[in-house]
TrEMBL record:
The keyword ATP-binding does not apply. This is Diguanylate cyclase. It comes from the Bacteria. Gene3D superfamilies: 3.30.70.270. The chain crosses the membrane at residues 12-29, 35-54, 61-79, 91-110. Coiled coil: none annotated.
Length: 284
């Protein structure tokens, strides 16, 4: 209902804009003595309308005030120096220029609302998505849900559960050294290393794509996690020596933090991640 009303207002504004343009054409044609002056002012009016279209109505109206004062000063100068009279021509443009600006703003209002709604829906979809489209890995939203299940199993059956947080070293610097399209490839390649280093009953998550951070939920204790860490670093070093250095022109390194789940010290999935990330500080 609201969208239909907005579209109706936009359509009416467009028709009104055409009517105003028609009035301007008729007015200019009816005043051949001021043809050049009227054409110049019409171009200024269009310029102000275009600025309003790409910015805001506030910017457009402020520029209109500047135009009105400038045009008024010009008319006052002509009146004092040449003895000219203030005619219909002056009042017409003082009224028509802000009218064109306001009508253009109303016309673009519906489009801006649709753009805002589209951005909101894109963000909402991104937040609700549980799988990254490039790596097919579950994301942090999925981790929040799965961690509750994993920790519940760990507590009920007395099975040790460890979270590994894996991060690419110097990622911010690496982003500046390799092309944008290769960043996605690097994320995918490291994801494949992580996936191949864990068992089928463990879980891998892409926690932060922008900061190249993964989470691995492992049904093992700290000693078992150390084996996985060594396996990860060995596979990465192996690829650095044979493939990554040629492909990305840089060697990728990993920082890994691990924390074993303890029900009395870890209150929720977010706290689980925070404590694991703290362990990254010790992996230099």
């Amino acid at each position: 209902m609201r969208r239909n009303r907005s579209n109706l207002i936009s359509d009416v504004a467009f028709l009104l804009f055409l009517v105003l343009i028609y009035i301007c054409i008729v007015f200019i044609a009816g005043a051949p003595d001021s043809y050049i002056q009227n054409i110049i002012i019409l171009n200024v009016a269009f310029l102000l309308a275009i600025v309003t279209y790409f910015t805001t109505v506030t910017a457009g109206l402020v520029l209109n005030l500047v135009f009105i004062f400038s045009y008024g000063f010009f008319i006052l100068y002509q009146t004092v120096s040449q003895g000219a009279t203030i005619g219909v021509n002056t009042y017409f443009w003082l009224l028509m220029t802000p009218l064109l600006t306001v009508v253009v703003w109303i016309f673009t209002l519906s489009g801006r609302q649709l753009q805002t709604e589209n951005e909101r829906l894109v963000k909402k979809t991104a937040n609700l998505a549980t799988v990254d489209e490039n790596t097919d890995l579950r994301n942090s939203f999925s981790f929040q849900k799965d961690a509750v299940l994993f920790t519940g199993i760990s507590t009920r059956y007395k099975i040790p559960l460890t979270l590994l947080v894996v991060k690419v070293k110097y990622w911010n610097e690496i982003r500046r050294l390799i092309p944008e399209e290769q960043l996605a490839e690097a994320i995918y390649d490291v994801s494949q290393i992580n996936q191949s280093s864990i068992r089928t009953n463990d879980a891998l998550y892409l926690l932060d794509k922008e900061d190249a951070t993964w989470g691995l939920l492992l049904f093992t204790d700290n000693d078992g996690a150390k084996i996985v860490i060594e396996r990860l670093k060995y596979k990465l070093q192996e690829l650095n020596d044979t493939e990554f250095s040629r492909k990305y022109k840089v060697s990728l390194g990993l920082k890994i933090g691990a924390v074993e789940y303890q029900a009395d010290t870890i209150e929720n999935p977010f706290d689980f991640i925070v404590q694991a990330k703290k362990q990254l500080e010790y992996d230099v």
